[in-house]
Design brief:
Blueprint: H1 18-27, E1 31-32, H2 35-42, E2 82-84, E3 90-91, E4 97-99, E5 115-117, E6 120-125, E7 140-144, E8 153-154, E9 157-158
Parallel strand pairs: 2-8
Antiparallel strand pairs: 1-9, 2-6, 3-6, 4-5, 6-7
């Protein structure tokens, strides 16, 4: 993974599932952002701010009506693609059972074990181009299963500074 200007975000269009994002981020020496970090980095982007009718390159701000950059100078923190929040898998029901539905993504043809759950969910942040009235600095979705492969969802990673 590399932060690059004028790059198209990775999404399910490329075949990536949420499990793939976690592995890609870790393999690049970074980590998934937390909900607190997402809220802070997106501050200043107003509600209703979305881009074109599909995922757009970073730096592309046409049709937003303004430069879609947060107060911390983060490009497109909202309104382009949903972004996976780290450490956010939770189960919202009480009738669990065993399932192997999480075997999806780039290595989905391999069995990786089963999950004991009923309605596992992850948090995704920011909204995407269809949510023209909901997208914004505090837009959050808590109704997505962790093994979805969605063309509307990508990932934003963070790295910690080196301190001695």
């Amino acid at each position: 993974m590399l932060s690059a200007y004028n790059a198209i975000p990775l999404t399910g269009t490329d075949g990536y599932a949420y499990y793939d994002y976690r592995r890609l981020v870790r393999n690049s020496g970074m980590r998934l952002i937390t909900l607190d970090e997402a809220l802070i980095m997106a501050y200043g982007v107003p509600q209703g701010a979305t881009g074109l009718s599909g995922r757009t390159n970073t730096g592309q701000h046409t049709d937003y009506g303004f430069e879609c950059v947060s107060c911390l100078n983060i490009d497109q923190p909202s309104g382009n693609v949903w972004q996976l929040i780290g450490n956010s898998i939770f189960d919202r029901n009480s009738s669990p059972g065993w399932s192997d539905e999480q075997n999806v993504g780039k290595d989905g043809s391999e069995d990786h074990g089963q999950i004991y759950q009923d309605e596992a969910r992850v948090a995704i942040f920011g909204g995407y181009w269809v949510y023209t009235s909901q997208a914004g600095a505090r837009c959050l979705n808590l109704n997505v299963t962790p093994w979805y492969v969605l063309a509307t969802t990508g990932v934003r990673a963070a790295c910690d500074s080196l301190r001695h």
